[in-house]
Structures are given as C-alpha cells and as structure tokens.
Design brief:
about 450 residues; alpha/beta; UDP-N-acetylmuramoyl-L-alanine:D-glutamate ligase; Protein-Tyrosine Phosphatase, Chain A; eleven-stranded mixed sheet; six-stranded mixed sheet; 16 helices; globular
Length: about 450
C-alpha cells in the first residue's frame, strides 16, 4: 500500500465530522473502537494517557499538556481533532506531524481487518475517526512515547478515544454545542462529556456553569475519582485558585504554586486552559519545574486559536464558532486591538447558532465577508446572509476564502485588522492561502 492509497482508504470511510446528519447512538459505538484496538494488540496500553474532554478549550489544553511534558524531557504523542490543513496534524510525535511512512505502515496492517469488519458488521461501520484513532495510538506505540495526550473528538462517553485508561482527565468548560446529538441542555451534554471519567482517576474541572459542574462532580463521586476544581479567588468550592487580575498571573493551592506566569497566547481564557494542563500533570504525578512552566507559558502558541499573523494589516485567525467563543474573541479585540478598523471573514457549519454569533461579533467589526464553506455540513449562504444582515449594515458574500482574503487586504487599511473565524475549515483554508503551516 502506498501513502496515496492509504489516504484514499481513510477518506472513503464515513466521516461524521462532515456528515450532514446521523444517529448519534447508532454512529458512535465504543465496542467498535475496542475491537479495533484489540486487532492492533491494545496499543493504547503502551503509554501513559492524559484525556481531555469539554466544549471550549480542549484543543488548547491538550497542546499545553504536550508542550509542558516535552519541556520536562518527556517523549510524547499528541492526538487532536479536527485538523486545519493536513489530517496528519491530528497525530503528532514530539510536536511533529506523523511521518507518511508510519501512517502507511499502520494502515497496511489495519486495512485487511477493517475490510473484514465492514463486511461482517454492515450496521456498525468503521468511521474515519475510528480508524485514525487506531493509527494514532499505534503510531505512539511504535514511536515508544512515554505519554499520549488525547483530545476527545465529540462527546466523550461513546467517543473512540474513550478506550484509554488515563493517568488524569481534564474537562474544560461545557456549552451548548452539537445539541442535535449530545442533548439540548447543558446537563445532558455534561453527562456525555463526563463519560470519560474512570474509577479512581483524578479529574481536573475547568470553570463550569452550575448545571455542568453538578453533573461532572456527581459522576466523579460515582467513580470514586478525586476532583480538582479550578476557580477564582473567593470561590468557595475552588481547589486551585487562578488569579487573573494582572498581566502576570498565578495559580495556587496545596502542593501547587506557580507565580508570575505570562502567556504568549492571546486571550485571558487561555490562562484557564494552561492552568488546567499544569494541575492535571501535577495530579498525574509529574514533577514540574516552575521556571520551565513559566517558559512554556511564554513561548507556546496554539495554531488557529487567536493566532496572530503579522502584516499590513495583520490578520487574526480563530476557530470561534459558538456565542461564548465569539464573546472571548470580542474581548481580545477590545483588549489588544482597540479602535482598529476591522474586516471579518466568516463561515460556519450548518448546526451553529449563527444569529447569536452574528449579534456578538457585529459591533466589533466594520465589514463582514461571508464564505460558504465546502462540504455537506456547511451552512448555506441563504441561511448565513439573512442572519448577518439582521445584525450588521455592511455584509457581502464572497465565493472562496482566498477571494475573501484578497478583498479584505484590498479594502482594510494597513493600520486596521482582518479577522477570520467560524470554523476549522475556514481557518485552515486561510492558512493555506497565506502559506502558513500549523507546524
């Protein structure tokens, strides 16, 4: 099997990230992922795992976990989703994308078993994510990594990554997303996310609304899992306090004290993501050096998350696609780019709350360029356009992301700002057009 053949096989599998509709309970089967791991000889047992679930910030937490481990001398694997430019971004070994040769070798081993499974189980077919998870976990074993940082794909309870037996679990803030599949309330979504909690495994819980926190803590109690809750000074149930009052910030609790931290990544919400990573490693028994932790905070960027690309004008790329993440983006614009004449390039999937996102972002931008993204899950222009025109006086549709970038550069003053947000697909297309790779 060649690399091109391996890619073709993977892309021929059903991809629920792009499918226009599906039955969640029927499509997501953990026993299928377990069978795949058994066929590979249980590669997920060959390294120590850290498992990250949640709605907002889980990719950032996973990136910080990997960066912190590597800075302390660990040999690591990082499994995240979705990707921006190349699907090999999803599987990283020591910070670099999986080599084509390893991908091809693992697929060559996996393909005969996968083909048999498809024939024998027509009602439980393997997905793109199932197989890529198997490739990632086997690649980690073949690379002899000591740690594997694993981000949940969707939900948690039934996600293919939930085969891992982690050293610690992180659950980032939960919000209304994928409501058609995970449930239409915060509590219902939290139950799916909390399904990654395992008996006796420490759980680090990021800031949560009360409904989500109650569900997560109840699941942890049921599993006899130690819970560490992050909170602000004065919050009664905070186990670790994150002091975010100044440019330099700190986190403190019994056994944990890291002070004078300064993040390279934009956005105060990234402090909570970094803090969750630090606390999770502490709870997993990793000894952390304060100076090294400070250096990682000051040096690490998160591709596609408030990712600033210099220029005249500069460009800010962000995968924000929910009302909450849009509010975070607006806070960053107000704090770091006040008064800038800003052009927004936007496109999203068809299950997003576009009217709410538009109302949040509209006051912060001067012009809006809408792009209908490729694929069956993209929101069509005839839905995006009315929602945005109800919120903003200057909105126009553009055929492609590349054309939108060209338009924005021609019409935005050099002292202004271009923002591209709404989905991973849009940000990835912008990075490709600009010649930037996530590495």
């Amino acid at each position: 099997m060649t690399y091109e053949q391996a890619i073709a096989y993977l892309n021929a599998l059903i991809d629920y990230e792009r499918a226009p509709d599906f039955n969640y309970g029927a499509a997501f089967k953990l026993d299928r992922a377990i069978a795949l791991m058994e066929a590979l000889g249980r590669p997920e047992r060959a390294w120590s795992a850290l498992h990250v679930a949640g709605t907002k910030g889980k990719g950032s937490v996973a990136t910080y976990l990997d960066a912190l481990l590597r800075a302390h001398g660990a040999h690591t694997g990082l499994y995240t989703s979705p990707h921006l430019v190349s699907f090999r971004e999803r599987v990283r070994i020591d910070g670099r994308q999986i080599p084509e040769a390893i991908f091809t070798d693992v697929m060559t081993v996996l393909e005969p078993w996968a083909t048999r499974w498809q024939e024998e189980h027509p009602d439980s077919r393997l997905s793109f994510f199932d197989v890529l998870t198997g490739i990632g976990f086997e690649a980690f074993r073949r690379a002899h990594v000591g740690w594997g940082v694993v981000e949940v794909g969707m939900g948690g309870r039934l996600d293919a990554t939930n085969v891992v037996q982690p050293r610690a679990v992180v659950i980032t803030p939960i919000a209304l997303e994928h409501t058609k599949y995970l449930g239409d309330t915060i509590a219902a979504i939290a139950r799916e996310k909390a399904g990654v909690i395992k008996p006796g495994i420490p759980v680090v819980v990021g800031p949560q609304v009360p409904e989500a926190r109650a569900v997560i803590v109840a699941r942890a109690v049921e599993c006899d899992a130690d819970v560490t809750r992050l909170g602000r000074p004065g919050e009664a149930d905070a186990d670790v306090v994150v002091d975010e009052s100044d440019d330099a910030w700190s986190l403190r609790a019994d056994g944990i004290e890291f002070v004078d931290l300064r993040l390279r990544a934009l956005g105060r919400h990234q402090r909570w993501n970094f803090a969750a990573a630090v606390v999770a490693l502490n709870r997993a028994g990793v000894e952390l050096d304060p100076r090294t932790v400070g250096a990682v905070a000051a040096e690490t960027t998160i591709p596609g998350r408030l990712h600033l690309i210099p220029g005249d004008p500069p460009m800010l790329l962000d995968v924000a696609h929910t009302p909450d993440s849009a509010r975070m983006l607006v806070r960053v614009l107000e704090e770091h780019f006040p008064g800038r004449r800003t052009t927004l390039i936007f496109g999203c999937a068809n299950d997003k709350r576009v009217a709410e996102v538009a109302r949040v972002l509209a006051p912060a931008v001067e012009r809006v360029l809408l792009v209908q993204l490729p694929g069956s899950r993209a929101m069509p222009m005839n839905e995006m356009l009315p929602a945005w025109r109800a919120a903003h006086p200057f909105v126009r549709d553009v055929a492609t992301v590349a054309a939108a970038l060209e338009n924005a550069r021609a019409t935005t003053p050099s002292h202004g700002l271009i923002v591209a947000c709404g989905s991973f697909i849009l940000v990835g297309a912008a990075m490709e057009a600009l010649g930037y790779a996530p590495d």
